[in-house]
Design goal:
7-stranded mixed β-sheet, Aspartate Aminotransferase, domain 2, binds D-serine, about 425 residues
């Protein structure tokens, strides 16, 4: 049983995995939070380390047989600290949401006030959504973007912080294309006696690659995911000052989680090593250059880019500039049919609910991993805009489908013989 490959033991599942490899290979992937992992990351996350229980932390576990996972987790911690210049790293969080949960549990009490970014203007579910644990357990108040510039107004953040006296300020987002002023956030936090948490889930890969201003010198704590631009396994992580290390570790285990996923911790260590290289820095810089080139190309076709552009790996477009009746949901579905995978998103002051939305979120980490540079992503941007504008013209859509197919084939995520599993 143990030696039988998936193709024999569960051909139905193997076929499904192979179909998804094919989907990943044949579409241009523009979901801002997705990427393609290396074979090395896949091998570590698909390893026998999945078998081990190890509640606790290196040197202090509740199970025997943890000598080697102790070494693995310590290696991941040391690599994370070195890569980000942090005093402390927790690599056990199963996801970005659980990293945030671990921090809130560790540093706050239920009912405490937190100031975060509005979900409908770029913030994240765990920044106080009423249907998420964050909004259920904590008293969230929020800041947003300026209606004219669509950029976070730091004076408004300061004003709300002075009026509300939060215990924590969360700076970070999942759908915002501009650089946040980390130093100003810290100044405001200090003024009102709050802790500053930066949720860097989206930009941690750019920070690792020195392609984005670094929040670590300014924040008390930085949470992140490892599977976005950082190109690691699906998972979360927390970086902090030494002062908050013990409380944060306790917030993750035992407050928020049980046994860590040792296979994913090993894969995180592999991705930190990969992200420490010169090649990775070049990759991170290219992600940002590609996002700027693509946003300019889309805008050049008359599709409005929210806030007028991008400084990071993503941008949002306002579909009302194409057609008042075109919803994000319909646009995303249409683009999927021509081979472009992305997600619909609310835009600031969106008149539509999130499940229909008036915008698209477009990101370049995955296409950049495939080797696309400015000229290719600009062409994808023009094809995307053309398909939206000419969506009732079968010839326009066929042209987009054919050209996107050619680009996906010329810049594949994985070579044709690449296995979809270890
Ligand atoms: N779901 C992630 C994203 O797409 O941004 C955030 O958690």
């Amino acid at each position: 049983m143990f030696g039988t490959p998936l193709s024999e033991s569960d051909p139905q599942m193997e076929a499904l995995i192979n179909r998804d490899v094919e989907r990943q290979r044949t579409h241009v992937q523009l979901i801002a939070s997705e990427n393609f992992v290396s074979r090395a990351v896949m091998q570590a996350s698909g390893s026998v380390l999945t078998n081990k229980y190890s509640e606790g932390y290196p040197g202090k576990r509740y199970y025997e047989g943890c000598e080697i996972v102790d070494e693995i987790e310590s290696l991941a911690i040391e690599r994370a600290k070195a890569l980000f210049g942090a005093e402390h790293a927790n690599v056990q969080a199963h996801s970005g949401a659980q990293a945030n949960m671990g921090v809130y549990y560790g540093l706050l009490k239920p009912g405490d006030k937190i100031l975060g970014m509005r979900l409908d203007q770029g913030g994240h579910l765990t920044h106080g959504s009423p249907v998420n644990f964050s909004g259920i357990l904590y008293d969230f108040v929020s800041y947003g973007v300026d209606p004219e510039t669509e950029v976070v107004d730091m004076d408004q953040v300061a004003e709300i912080a002075r009026a509300e006296h939060p215990k924590m300020i969360v700076a970070g987002y999942s759908a915002y294309s501009r650089i946040l002023d980390w130093a100003r956030f810290r100044e405001i936090a200090d003024e009102v006696g709050a802790l500053l948490m930066v949720d860097a889930a989206h930009i941690i890969g750019l920070i690792a690659g020195r392609a984005h201003p670094d929040p670590i010198p300014h924040a008390h704590v930085v949470t992140a995911t490892t599977h976005k631009a950082l190109r690691g396994p699906r998972g979360g992580m927390i970086l902090s000052t030494a002062e908050h290390a013990a409380a944060i570790d306790k917030g993750v285990f035992p407050n928020a989680q049980g046994g860590p996923l040792n296979n994913h911790i090993a894969a995180k260590a592999v991705c930190y090593a990969e992200a420490s290289t010169h090649q990775y820095r070049a990759y991170a810089a290219q992600i940002v250059a590609n996002a700027a080139a693509m946003a300019a190309a889309v805008a050049g076709e008359g599709v409005r880019v929210v806030s007028g552009g991008t400084d990071n790996h993503l941008f949002l477009v306002d579909l009302r500039s194409v057609d008042d009746d075109l919803t994000g949901k319909d646009a995303a579905r249409l683009l999927s049919s021509v081979g472009i995978t992305l997600n619909f998103n609310t835009i600031p002051f969106d008149p539509r609910p999130p499940y229909r939305a008036s915008g698209l979120r477009i990101g370049t980490p995955a296409a950049t991993t495939c080797g696309m540079k400015e000229s290719e992503v600009a062409e994808v941007g023009r094809l995307l805009a053309g398909a939206l504008r000419g969506r009732s013209d079968a010839r326009v859509l066929e042209h987009a489908r054919q050209r996107i197919g050619e680009l996906a084939e010329a810049f594949p995520a994985y070579p044709p013989d690449f296995p979809g599993h270890v």
